[in-house]
Amino acid sequence: VLGGVDVAVLVVLVVVVVCWRFVGGCAFSPTMSVTAYDNSFSFRQNELATKGEPVPRGMSAEQFAKFQESPFMKKARMQEETTWTLTSERDKQRKARDPAFNPQESDFTASKAYNYEKIVNYYKVLGIDEFASLDEVKKAYKKLSLLYHPDKTTSLPKEEQDESASIFIELKNAYMTLNDQATRRQYDRDRDHNKAGEEVNGWKKKGDKVSFDAREVLKKLQERQKPPGKVNVVEVPCKLEKFFYGGAKRYTRTRKVIREHFEFYEDKNFRIDLPRGAPEGWECDMKGGDMNFDTQPDTMKFVLASKLHAVVARDGADLLVKKPVLLKPDAHLQSYLNFNLHTLGGRTIMIWGRNPAYSQVGAANAELDVRIRGEGVGSTGFLQFRAKFQQPQGSGSSFNIVVSVTTTYTKIQFFCSVHAEATVEDLHQAIRDVLQWPEDQPVNITKPGSDKSSVPFQSHTAKLGGMREVLLDPAVRLYELPMSVRRARELLNSVNVLASTESFERELRKCCKRRGLPEFEHTFRQLWDDTSRVAPLYGYRVGFDGLKVALQRALWVVADEPDAPILQQRFVELGFRPRKPPKVKIARRRKLPIAAVDLFLARNGLGPPSWGPNSERIPEPGSETDTEKSDDPEPGEDDCADMLFGGSSASDSRPSYGRRSGARPAQAHGSFAAAVHPAMLKRTCRREEVAPVCELELLPLFGAGEGLQLYTKPTCSLYFYSNLQQTWTVKPGHLRPQPCFAIAVSCPSGAKRTGRDAWARLRHSLVPMLRQAAFLLLREARGILPLPLPSEAAFSDEAYRAEEGARAIGLGDDGALGELVGDVTGGLGEEDDERDILAIAKHRVAQAAAAAGDGLAGGMFDFEDLEDLDKVEEAADQIRQERWELKRRRSAVREVWSLDARRQAKQSEFFLRNSEKSSPSGEPSPTPALWKQMANRAFGCGDYFSAQAMYARELADLPSQDVEARAIAHSNRALCFLKIEHFSDALQDARVATELRPSWGRAWARFGAAAGHVSGASSEQAREAWFRAVTHDPNEAHMEGLFEAHRSGSGSSSLDRAHERKEKGNEATRALEWGAAVAHYTVALAMVPPPPSDPRKKDDCALLRSILHGNRCSALSRVKAWGLAEHDGKKAVEHKDDYGKAYLRLGVAQLGCGSYEKAYSSFARALHLDEKDQSARRGREVCLSLIPRWDSRVSQRRRNRFARDSGRPASNTKVYAISEMHYDHIGHEEWVNSIHATKFLDDVLIIAGNVADSFRALERALIAVRAKFRRVFYVPGNHEMWITRNEDKRFPDSFCKLWAIVELCDALDIDIFPATVCKDVYIVPLLSWHNAQFDAADPFPDPSSEANRAAKWPIDKEQQLWRYMLRLNQAHMDKPYHGTVITFSHFAPRTSCPVWPEKEIRKTSGCPELDEQLRDARSVCHVYGHTLYRFNQVVDGVKYIHRPLHVEMAIDGTVSKDPLACVFNGESLCFDLVDI
Q: Which helix (H) or strand (E) segment is 1078 a member of?
């Protein structure tokens, strides 16, 4: 017979029979039900079913008598007697107070009116004493029910309604217990029995479970009945960094306290949590103001206002830099910008990119207006500042001043350049820059006094004024100015750029021609005056001498660099050679002689007794520094001139700036030379006087708030910005923006006083490195770099080969250079032209001499004289210059005419009509694909006019047979016409596109948009077009267009038409026409009246709106538009949260999106609303089988965090562990808040469950802990799985709460998946549940056990739940764990771990199968929770740690600071206790 019966059915039948036997014929217990997850059953049930009830062994009379005289039975009898005494006394007192009270013996055997809980004090719940009469019980219940009945709390918020509902349930339970005499007497006797056991046995009973105390409520009611107190507005100044980063502001205020009718004052501390990006004047109402006799306590309204900041000023959400950012004097000559900006504390911004002012007219006066989105207050705020180029020294402007700084001991003198309005703090920063000191290095400067003394400055904010000399007392003696290779390169590059301009080279050539003349030296120094303004930036004197010493020092520093020969050759051409710095001479100290007066006093015994008669005991007067002159000779003023113009060492390498045969002067006006006309030159001068402005707007490069964390100490993050999305159209008079990038280095701890020094040290070492390398890591930034050209071939066999007749041109080969220039200019270097030039030059010289009377009488001139030949050569150079300028003018005019002609030809209609012809140069016209590509690019740049023209060219070249391509081109051109508001043309093109492709939804959408603008949005033509667009392609844009087309024309009486459209949508659904169904449901939604703006008013159309959204969600799911379907499902739930079908359809959409956890919660809510919904039940089972794979999109993001810290050094990481936190217990919240704010920011914390019972308390606890540590790892415990009375509606079962906790951890950046915390250190969280086999003595579940009864599971919690939890961990076992692996779980993994000795508690303390998983993960340390016994022991190679939080609160309210347990100290495993 059993051969045809399925095994699963047999198992279910056996379970039913066993449950029937144990329950005594009662209904099937839901806790023992078996779902489709697996077919296992309880071993305990099998044992009882096969062997039956165990038969107790009998006891003899002697044994029974001995047992009665045992201490246990004696105490039991004493406990019963004490219980009877307490009950009798209670009855007497109740009888005296309530005459109607008539106790009976049958009261103790009568049935209970309510199955009460002994540990709950129901008297406190109702606010009465233990001897209150029944009338008092009824009055107390009625009084409190009027406050907490659900019908009385409908106007309160939803959270307060849920809280009131749970309180009302407690009141009702207390009333049912105390209102019935028999139940009340049984309740009192049970409590007396516990009290008697405490007195007899000496053990302390557990405290009463009081979830609600009516006495406190009545006191609050009395306070509420008083008129409200006044609102005290207190303005709390707060640092601007608090608004930027967010954080807690602590404020102490003295308040008046009334206690026991006594009035006194005490200080109260307020903690104000300021969110990140809070607006100015953010308000926070808090209780705890002054107490009053006649009114309620005052309410404190804290208004947080930002303090004045030294660098930035706040303007709404924007931050404005007060002072302009001064760039280097040569920055406008550099092709790339690179500068830093320090804004808020712990925030430094580096900016790099192409220089918009480079090679622009008036670049020296240019200004950059920079706006960086995301660097203001909040994610939408901007940081705004203006960057200016520093003006030259000595140009008649007091832009900068130079301050001489002299060290006190070594007498080293150097110079610093600061702003004219600079303060002492600005001078400190300039000294740090020159000496290359870190930013936290203290600078001690004083003013020199009249008597060789020093006078300190009053404050760091004082202005320098006329102060030009200061004394520096460095902490370390300074013997020479430091100059690193980086600083030397900066100096050389700056001078090279300033000296490479055309005007400088022209003046240098003129100066060379005056060699040997008296004015040569003055002219030469005057030439370098403007360039020498960079010398004070490196610590040298302003002027040519200081610049010369600085350049010689810089060339000597870079002498060992690979490109040193090139740099030295370049500066030898300018007249500078590397020079070894003079040898450092340490100032010697000499003793001062003893004064003659002291000697006289010592000889005559008139001095102090300690001197004695001998002068050797006289104290030394001290010492002084000898003023020694350096032995090295000072560099002469003619040293540079000698290198440039004389001497054997420099004559070979100097440039020939004098006469050159066939040479041409350098171009003076760019490559086109269009501005050589006098009118154009005047215009250029006027433009140079005007300060051009360039506006740069930088946006986040990788999304707002997404940064890159660096493994530094203190921890900092990088945020990237760019202006690649900025429009390139500029206003008149503005410069065109160029690609720029910004990197913000953020360290929140650097804004605090405790972390300011560490941040300064980190910034000094980190920012220079990031400036050199960080921008090159960005692909977009590398794209704007110039393409490098190698100076030699990469491989020897591919070396460059010169063709026949070619020759190299050297630096001094002026003839060859002249030939090259002549070839380029069209033969100006030919021999015939040269003879003409010489002839004209001789004629001019002869005419000039005749006019001056210097020639011969007969007009003859001797051209053989050397002096006369020099004059002819000068005249020839002038003629060559004139001819060169004329050639450049003609070339520029031809270039301008050519550009204008091309531009006009491209814009003319003739060019469009004759597009099929070849271009004038004979090149073939572009293909249609190329026209389309160009049009798409123009459309993306916002150039819609050019885009529509290029689409027209594409249409002209497309063959008529290619219907699809022509439809796409017409549709694209229609979109261009819509952008430029040519709606008639757009309508025509869209109509052609729909005729070519009638089933293309995008064409119908553009037809609808154009028709809406031409004939009105609610026109029938537009509605029909949008309807077809949705039918053929149901996407978000099309549905929005259809909704707006029908919404604008629907009136208030359109509810009937909405029902009609709903029925049409149902018909389309039955016909499997999903697109038409979506369109009909969209039209119906547009016809439904919108919900009332006042949330207190009832929405009569909420159900209809929920049904329509749910139906459209179902139709969208059919076409696999999962994202839109999920959005519609959420809308359906939002409008009607008790509609089960809405949750069901939302679950299907979420299942399609891959959000299995969310889908499970939706199916569970649907099943909670309708227990007969088999579709929801099947969906829930499918989700349970899919979730252990962890392959959803959210799970993939969790997996991506695995190797985030794999490169972090282990020495900077410590791992701490808390086995159980219990945040909702007394004193534990204060303990968490007392953890140091910055001490553990580089460390990791492990929390092994049991953080809090309710979800809200858990959220607050995790937020508080996450702010203290770099990373937090967490697994839920059994307390988190409890469903409290306030959470029944939110979480249908414990799995829903588990997935909600997982989602909360994702939002708070808390890890629940394995991850590396540093190099070769892994932390692996393991989910778990208790297994009865943990009790080796009785490895069977106890059917009468009520452990964790507040947790609701849809599967068997005895045999299936722990297996399912282990299966959730299985996907993490294949990770490449090595090194130090730390695992943790909530339940104990081994039976040897100490747990509570009680039998029923031991069965729910651990899971032995968990130990196999942690060993599969190669764990060397395991942290567990759930038990109260602290444990630290190594068992079979694994270290097991249990360290629950233990907090004690003193009478004065102070909390003991239990130390944290450190399990990894950066080097190895440990167990160190660290103070918080």
A: helix 1074-1087
Tokens of 585: 């001479």
The distance from CA 63 to its chain's CA centroid, rounded to whole angstroms, is 76
Q: Looking at residue 476, what is its pLDDT? A: 79
Residue pair 1261/1301 in contact (Cβ under 8 Å)? The answer is no
Whether the bond between 56 and the residue before it is cis, its omega within 30 degrees of 0, is: no
Specify the pairing of strand 1431-1435 against strand 1380-1384: unpaired
Rounded alpha-carbon distances, angstroms, from residue 522 to 503, 511, 527: 18, 10, 9
Tell me the angle at which helices 181-201 and 71-97 cross, rounded to the nearest 10 degrees: 140
The enclosing H or E element of 431 equals helix 424-435
Whether residue 1104 contacts residue 1127, with contact meaning beta carbons closer than 8 Å, is answered with no
Closest by CA to 134, choosing from 183, 163, 98, 103, is 98
H helices then E strands: how many in the chain?
A: 47, 34
Burial class (CB in 10 A: 0-12, 13-18, 19+), 985: middle
DSSP character at residue 1079: H
User: CB burial class (10 A; 0-12, 13-18, 19+) of residue 572?
Assistant: buried
pLDDT digits (tens, 9 = 90+) for 848-901: 777 665 443 333 334 444 456 667 777 887 888 787 777 766 666 566 566 555
Specify whether the CB–CB gap between 812 and 655 falls below 8 A. Answer: yes
| CB-facing half-sphere around the CA of 202: CA atoms within 13 A | 0
CB-count burial class (<10 Å; 0-12, 13-18, 19+) for 410 = middle
The order of strands in the sheet holding 454-456 is 413-419, 400-407, 469-472, 445-448, 454-456
> What is the pTM for the complete model shown?
0.51
Calculate ∠ Cα 1121-1184-27, nearest 5°: 125
Cα radius of gyration rounded to whole Å, the chain: 45
Q: Parallel, antiparallel, or unpaired for β 1469-1474 and 740-746?
A: unpaired
161 Cβ contact list (under 8 Å, min separation 6): 150, 153, 154
Residue 1464's φ and ψ, nearest 5 degrees, are: -145, 120
User: What does DSSP say about strands 1271-1274 and 1244-1247: parallel, antiparallel, or unpaired?
Assistant: parallel
Q: What gap in Å lies between CA 976 and CA 1170, rounded to an integer?
A: 52
Q: Cβ distance 692 to 360 under 8 Å?
A: yes
Q: Tokens 């003991």: give the residue.
A: 1456
Residue type, 95: K
Q: Could you report how far apart the first and last alpha carbons of the chain are, in Å?
A: 70
CA gap 900, 1067 in Å, rounded: 65
Q: What is the pLDDT of residues 762-800, one digit of tens each?
A: 888 888 888 888 888 888 888 888 766 554 554 444 444
User: What's the mean pLDDT in 1181-1202?
Assistant: 88
In whole angstroms, give the CA distance from residue 321 to residue 1213.
Answer: 37
Q: Using CA atoms, how far apart are residues 1146 and 843, in angstroms rounded to an integer?
A: 100
Q: Which two three-digit tokens encode residue 1463?
A: 């399990």
Is it the case that residue 1289 has pLDDT exceeding 60? yes
Q: In the block, which residue shows the tokens 């960079």?
A: 534
In tens, the pLDDT along 23-73 reads 444 333 333 333 344 444 555 566 566 656 555 556 777 777 887 888 878
Report the alpha-carbon distance of residue 654 to residue 645 in Å, rounded: 7
Which phi and psi (to 5°) does residue 1334 adopt? Answer: -65, -25
Identify the pLDDT of residue 485: 84
Which candidate, 739, 742, 747, places its Cα nearest to that of 701?
A: 742
DSSP per-residue string spanning 4-64: GS-HHHHHHHHHHHHHHHHHTS-PPPGGG---SS-----HHHHHHHHH-SPPPPP--HHHH
Q: Reduce the DSSP state of residue 1094 to 3 states and report it.
A: coil
Closest CA relative to residue 603, chosen from 615, 594, 593, 595: 615
Q: Which of 326, 487, 438 is nearest to 763 (CA)?
A: 438
Tell me which of 354-363, 424-433, 1428-1437 is least confident: 354-363
